């Protein structure tokens, strides 16, 4: 697939993008960067004419507004939100074909949009201290990957159970939570990664039911100690897993 770096362009009107009718990916840099003048608008109103567009990355851009239209524009399948996407997130319900959603460093984001994101496959969240996943996220189901990093989350959100039969990867990084007893229902989960989760001190009793689990990676002190081969208190719960990694070393 052909690629073209437009980062050194100084066009003040982003309509020039529409000349690339087969464009599949757009990555807009920080509007305060040296490459793009701060007065440039992010997206032209006719961006919906890019029928081949599949990836749109608006990380580090702010004050984005989506207006309703009678005819739906072409919708991206991958969306990255960074820093201050609040106004954008409120209108995210219109992105009905979204498959990947990455949210990072959104200090004031308190909830996920209330919409049925039935096509969403990947949800990756990091550094969003005010985000309440327990009280938002209804309608999200069929996820293949869920990642949470640097969160005050106390437990996995209840709606994640809706993805128990489809989840292929779960990554918990620097998060204060415990795995619920219902975690044993994730019988199709093949990969679990736990990094520096201080409150996660043991696995639930039903871990043996996760028969599809093929790779377990742990880099969290209290839990790693309990998962030592043969000797750890939780070893019997995870002994069925073919590949266990403690601090980057396969045991």
UniProtKB/TrEMBL annotation:
Q: Name the UniProt key words of this record, in alphabetical order.
A: Plant defense
PANTHER family (alphabetical): NB-ARC DOMAIN DISEASE RESISTANCE PROTEIN, PLANT BROAD-SPECTRUM MILDEW RESISTANCE PROTEIN RPW8
Provide the species name: Prunus armeniaca
InterPro entries xrefs: LRR_dom_sf
Q: Which SUPFAM superfamilies match?
A: RNI-like
Q: Which GO terms describe its biological process?
A: defense response
The highest taxon in the source lineage is Eukaryota
Can you say what this protein is called? Uncharacterized protein
């Amino acid at each position: 697939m052909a690629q073209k770096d437009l980062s050194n362009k100084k066009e003040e009107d982003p309509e020039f993008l529409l000349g690339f009718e087969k464009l599949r990916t757009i990555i807009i840099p920080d509007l305060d960067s040296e490459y793009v003048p701060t007065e440039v608008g992010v997206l032209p109103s006719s961006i919906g004419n890019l029928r081949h567009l599949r990836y749109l990355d608006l990380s580090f851009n702010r004050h984005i507004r989506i207006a309703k239209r009678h005819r739906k524009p072409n919708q991206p399948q991958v969306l990255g939100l960074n820093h201050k996407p609040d106004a954008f997130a409120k209108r995210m319900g219109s992105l009905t074909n979204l498959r990947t959603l990455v949210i990072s460093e959104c200090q004031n984001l308190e909830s996920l949009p209330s919409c049925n994101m039935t096509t969403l496959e990947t949800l990756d969240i990091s550094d969003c201290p005010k985000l309440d996943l327990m009280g938002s996220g209804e309608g999200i189901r069929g996820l293949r990957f869920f990642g949470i990093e640097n969160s005050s989350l106390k437990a996995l959100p209840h709606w994640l159970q809706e993805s128990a039969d489809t989840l292929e990867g779960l990554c918990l990084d620097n998060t204060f939570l415990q795995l619920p007893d219902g975690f044993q229902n994730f019988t199709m989960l093949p990969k679990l990664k736990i990094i520096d989760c201080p409150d996660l001190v043991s696995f639930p009793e039903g871990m043996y039911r996760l028969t599809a689990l093929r790779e377990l990676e742990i880099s969290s002190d209290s839990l790693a100690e309990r998962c030592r081969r043969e000797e750890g208190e939780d070893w019997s719960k995870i002994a069925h897993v073919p590949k266990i990694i403690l601090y980057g070393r396969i045991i």
